[in-house]
Amino acid sequence: MARIYPELQKACQFYPAIDNHAHPILADQHRDRFEFEGLISEAQGSALTVDAVHTLACKRAVPQLNAILRIQNPTWDAIKAVRSQLRYDDLCNIFMHPTVTGIQCMLLDDGLGGVEEFSERYTWHDRFATSPTKRIVRVEIVAEGILKSLLKPHLATSSFDTATSIFQSFNIAFIASLDDNATDNSVVGFKSIACYRTGLDVAPEADSEESILMSLRDVLKMYQETGTIRLAHKALNDHILRMTFGVAGKCGKPVQFHTGLGDNDITLNRSSPSHLQAVIKAFPKTLFVLLHSSYPFTREAGYLAAVYSNVFLDFGEVFPFVSGPGQRAIIRQVLELCPTNKILWSTDGHWWPESYYLGSIQARQALYDVLSESVALGELLEDEAVSIVQNALFHNSNKLYKLSLEPNMAIFERK
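Structure for CBM1 domain-containing protein, as requested:
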């Protein structure tokens, strides 16, 4: 029988946590806007609605969700039926209350597509934490908004001769927006989705102005034809990120990058964090956070965090998308090289309150499973393992994002 380590178990189960990357949940009137299977998979279409329910991640989620719902014969469909009958306030409260998740503070990226239309505002989430919610600003979305305002007067013209003046105006407006966010106390960091748009091989040196202008002309043409702007033009996207790195490096607010695990909109072999190595070296004052365990490139992320002082590794989103054995393997890979003072935890919670619950309880269990093995093997003292847990859940994020919080040790006692 495996030995129980009570202090380590207590830390894993009950230490307050800072969720360093998540998203708002759906508003009541939009609670059924997206397929609930998105709770356990990033797939889309039939790969989500037909296949995802056959994963180990889904099978495991059923009894864990039922520990709250208490259905007599729990199945995935039964879980869906019961949750749909609950008052939305009750559903949110039973799965997101801080006594259930142990989350003291949430850092929300509210630039996710659909948030503006279908989700609650970031401050609404304060009711499910004991410290105020903070924002992570998604820079590509900011840039798209600025470009839309600048390009709108040119929708009726086929001439692109004004691209240079638009480019100059964009640079001024985008830097001003970054500076505003740099001094905004509600904003603690920036976020890039380059992984989805052009890949993570961001050029550290400036492209020629003409190549950026060509990208800008393509954006204007897209806007004229479709009425939408989606930045997926490498020269322009990389330019936007280099401006972000400059401001972020000066103000000390980290830049989070989506890496690895995502839906089928990413090109998998361009989502490895190893592609970021050149800009990590070129911008040593900029703090880079590699999100989502960089799965399946976790070892590469751990390597970067080990050899560059400005790189940090988030071990989130794999809860609950990856099976239990897979989650434990991922944490072991994180710990192979990554210094334990650079590990950050998140739920990547989004849309559904259950995502915060599963992201929390599964991560806490996986931490105990992995670290207790190391203690049993004599590779760690129990108090060292406890310190690793406390840092990963709370103190590392508290320091990196300059939150100046004290862990609320009474978090699990509040009713």
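The first helix runs from residue 6 to 14.
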